[in-house]
Amino acid sequence: MTGNPIDRRTMLRSAALLAATALAAACTPDPQPPATTTPGPQETPVPTTSSAVLLVFFSRAGENYWNGGRRDLEVGNTAVLATKIADRLGCDVYEIQAADPYPESYDETVARNVREQDDDARPEIAEPLPDVGGYDTVILASPIWNVRPPMIMSTFAEALDLTGKTILPVTTHAMSGLGRAPDVYAELAPTATIGEGLTIRGEEAADADTELDRWLSTKNLT
Ligand SMILES: Cc1cc2nc3c(=O)[nH]c(=O)nc-3n(C[C@H](O)[C@H](O)[C@H](O)COP(=O)(O)O)c2cc1C
Asked: Measuring from each residue's beta carbon to the nearest atom of ligand 1, which residues come in under 6 Å?
C-alpha cells in the first residue's frame, strides 16, 4: 500500500471520531428541502445518483496468522483494506474499538474469541456509536474469527437500526472467505438488505486493488 500505515490508521481513527459525533462529510447527502417545496421556474432539480456510504471496520494489530506461521502486524489486515476503501470512496469511516482491547498474542485472542462465541457475547464498544440515519449503504468490514465476524461486530450490528439500508459485508481471512458473515448480519439486521460481499486473504490486503476496484464498481460505489 502507499503511505505510512501508522499515519493512515491515525487518519481513520480521526475519521471514526468524526463519524461518531455525526459530523458527516463527503458521503452524506445535502439536507433535503421541505417536502412541499416545488422547484421554481428558474430551478432545475439536481438528480442524485450516488449513495451515502458509511464504512465501519474492526481490525486487530499484533501477532496474527500469516501464511501458516505468525507475523506481528503494525496495522491489521482489515485496517489496510479499509484504508483503501476509504481512499477510493472518500466516505465516512467508523472504526470499532473494543472497550476491553484484544490481546497482542494470537493464541490469547483465539482463546478469548472462543469464550465470546460460546457465550454469544456482545463485547462492549469503546466509542459512541455513529448516527447511521443519513446513510443508504453500510460496509461492515472485519476479520474472520472462527468462521464468522468477531462478536464485537454483532454488538455493532445489533445496536443500530439498519432498516432499509444495504449492508455490504467485507472480510479479510486466512481461508474461510466471508465465512458466516452474510448470515450473521441477516440475522441481526433482518430489516436490512445484505448485498454481495467482498473477501480478501489477509496476507493479500495490501495488494487487493484490482479485486477491490472490481467489487466497488459492481456495487456502483465508484
Ligand atoms: C482469533 C482469530 C481467529 C481466526 N479464525 C479464522 C478462521 O476461522 N478462518 C480464517 O480464514 N481465518 C481466521 N483467522 C485469520 C484472520 O481472519 C486473518 O488473519 C485476518 O486477515 C485478520 O484481520 P485483522 O488483521 O484485521 O484482524 C483468525 C484470526 C484470529 C486472530
From this structure: 59-60, 64-65, 73, 76-79, 106, 109-110, 113, 143-147, 172-176, 202
> Could you write out the DSSP letters of every residue in 117-160?
HHTT--PPBSSPPP--TT-SEEEEEEE-BTTB--HHHHHHHHHS
What is the span of the domain harbouring residue 153?
5-22+50-218
Answer yes or no: is 34 within a domain: no
Span of 4-18, 56-70, 180-194, 202-216 with lowest mean pLDDT: 4-18
Closest ligand 1 atom to the C-alpha of 76?
Answer: 25
Length of the chain, in residues: 222
CA distance 12 to 130: 14
